[in-house]
Amino acid sequence: AQTVTQSQPEMSVQEAETVTLSCTYDTSESDYYLFWYKQPPSRQMILVIRQEAYKQQNATENRFSVNFQKAAKSFSLKISDSQLGDAAMYFCAYRKGGSEKLVFGKGTKLTVNP
Amino acid sequence: KAGVTQTPRYLIKTRGQQVTLSCSPISGHRSVSWYQQTPGQGLQFLFEYFSETQRNKGNFPGRFSGRQFSNSRSEMNVSTLELGDSALYLCASSIPSGNTDTQYFGPGTRLTVL
Fold first, then answer.
1. How far apart are the two ends of chain A, measured CA to CA in Å?
2. Residues A54-83: pLDDT tens digits?
3. Looking at the predicted structure, is the pLDDT value of residue B106 above 90?
4. By CA distance, what is A32's nearest residue in B?
5. How far is A15 from chain B (nearest CA, A)?
């Protein structure tokens, strides 16, 4: 079975600085997708960024970028120029190709200090 | 375009009762997935429906069931409620369009079992 591990239950960062959240996963599949979702307190879960396993280039979305190391099965999220609105739970998720089922990590609570 | 909506947003039930939660996907989305979120177990996949058929099911007891209607709206039912069923229940919708689709989450239904 596929598993996703987020080893940092909590992280903090100063406003305007950079922070990296870690995620590792385990799968024997070759066709899969990786995601980072953000869940602000009492608010909706939203997609931050996605990465297709077949793409070597790391995905970027404005201040958010990933470091996808396929051989190491590592998928970290870098947030640059952190803003107060980035404070949230961040979940790493895995989806096998052809399936809608997401497998989530336990999450990392990110605090942004002014 | 309206997002994923879930009703009700909050529910309080007692042990032994049953409950029905509703999810309306984004217009045009035909796949609906359900997840249970608890502090201890995190986010766990319940089941996924596409074109009124259950395509995938997580590891939950038979007390958890669901269905999807012809307009893609979905309901999930939990019978004989237990204290451990207290959780945030999230639904997510997607088109799907092969492997390129993204799942969009609703705000969730907070179920408390007393």
1. 41
2. 998 999 999 999 999 999 999 999 999 999
3. yes
4. B99
5. 27
Please give the residue of chain A at the shortest CA–CA distance from B56: A101
User: Which among B11, B3, B4, B29 has a CA at the least distance from the CA of B88?
Assistant: B11
Tokens of A36: 């980072």
Query: CB distance A100–B103 less than 8 Å?
Result: yes
pLDDT digits (tens, 9 = 90+) for B21-38: 999 999 999 999 999 999
Nearest residue on chain A to B105, alpha-carbon basis: A45
Q: Out of A37, A50, A99, whose CB is closest to B56?
A: A99
Is the per-residue pLDDT at B89 higher than 80? yes
Kindly state whether B31 is in contact with chain A, defined as any CB-CB distance less than 8 angstroms: yes
**3-state SS of chain A: helix, strand, coil percent to 5?**
5, 55, 45
- For chain B, the average pLDDT equals 93
Q: Residue A21: which residues within 8 A CB-CB, separation 6 or more?
A: A6, A8, A11, A36, A76, A77, A78, A79, A90, A92, A108, A110
Going by C-beta distance under 8 Å and a sequence separation of 6 or more, which residues neighbour residue A17?
A81, A82
CB contacts, 8 Å: A98 with chain B: 99
Q: Report CA-CA distances (Å) from B72 to A38, B33, B53.
A: 26, 11, 10
